[in-house]
Amino acid sequence: MTHPLLDLAPLTAARFAAIERRVASLLATENDVVIMQGEALLPLEGCVRGGARPGSTALNVVTGPYGQTFGNWLRDCGATVVDLEVPFHTAVTAAQVERALAAHPGIDFVSLVHAEAATGNTNPVAAIGEVVRAHGALFMLDAVASVAAEPLLPDAWGVDLCVIGAQKAMGGPAGVSAVSVSERAWERLAANPQAPRRSYLSLLDWKERWIDGGRRTLLHAPAQLEMLALEACLERIEADGQDTVIARHASAAAATRAGALALGGGLEPFVHEAADAAPVATTLRTPAGVDAGELVAKALAADPSLPLIAGGGALATQMIRVNHYGADATQDAVLASLAALGEALGEGGAEVWQEAAARAVGEVWE
Question: Are the C-beta atoms of residues 260 and 282 closer than 8 Å to each other?
Fold first, then answer.
């Protein structure tokens, strides 16, 4: 008995290359695109370990937990790391980056997260790219949470290494990711004797054996299901139109923020300014004395499919995330999430205004 998810013909090099071209089109990039056979931490670590080495000085912008991870990798590579940390309830500014670069003229590598789904903020990459380009440093961007949720133009913004994943706004699997690589990034990696080679982390292996070889022979057997799912995501985005998909995520974010403010019950947006809030997820601070994990558990009791999760790490008891991305970037998902949170808050004795919240969501969405 055949099974459509098991009895698959091998994915050909030609089809793999065609999916690469569609990713390049999504990013509006003329740079090489490498599709990595693993979750986005794979190319992110490969980029850091290829771009940094002893003697490097890196500016690592920290607006959430992933920035902290990059700093650890950079130090592990022997680089001198300048951490530019800002409160997680805000975004970094281009002026802050410019001052850090001026204070440390030896900086040759900059790492930044575009949208931090974990904290709900997003950073002004276009403006930051200008100051990084003027300084001459290599610019690495984690765009895993922002791709398909907000504009992303790595070439226009001077991004040398742009990493994306399919599992958030693209609405796809977590097991496949991609990175666009500029010519100057390839030069940096090739000149770094410590850059991964003959390794699953290696971008250079893909360059030498796949790209330079005319994309005729794959390095290893690709993850067929993940690649086919990535292809399906790209087809769906192309059919809807990228502008439409981005607008849907922007509406979901604005409606969630407005609805939460109207709901009351002590919920407040974690990110103070709406302009700094990511369209992929809205983070909410719970009222004093209310544990975020317990509140989310109550909200999910009636409908476990709602895109609600408590924050992680130090924020686990005080932050709620409404993950309105991908299939959940809809008015129904926003309304249901806020209704469930309102019900849970009401059970705890808080005064909530469910009708006002629903009205605010509808007004913003329209």
Answer: yes
Question: How many residues belong to the chain?
Answer: 366
| Best CA proximity match to 186, nearest among 216, 147, 212 | 212
Q: How far apart are CA 31 and CA 180, in angstroms?
A: 6
Question: What is the per-residue pLDDT across 280-328, written as a single tens digit (0 to 9) for each?
Answer: 999 999 999 999 999 999 999 989 999 999 998 888 999 999 999 999 9
Sketch out the chain's domains with CATH numbers: 13-239 (3.40.640.10), 242-365 (3.90.1150.10)
User: CA separation (Å) from 134 to 11, 81, 188, 338?
Assistant: 42, 20, 18, 44
Note the pLDDT of residue 66. Answer: 86
The pTM of this model reads: 0.96
Q: How far apart are CA 204 and CA 257, in angstroms?
A: 43
Look at residues 219, 356, 344 and name the one whose alpha carbon lies nearest to residue 290.
Answer: 344
CA distances from 173 to 169, 229, 354, 357 (A): 11, 7, 34, 32
Segment 117-137 shows an average pLDDT of 97
3-state secondary structure 115-176: EECCCCEECCHHHHHHHHHHHCCEEEEECCCCCCCCCCCCCCCCCCEEEEECCCCCCCCCCC
296, β-bridge pairs:
none
Q: For residue 251, what are its two tokens? A: 């509406």
Among 185, 135, 178, smallest CA distance to 159 is for 185
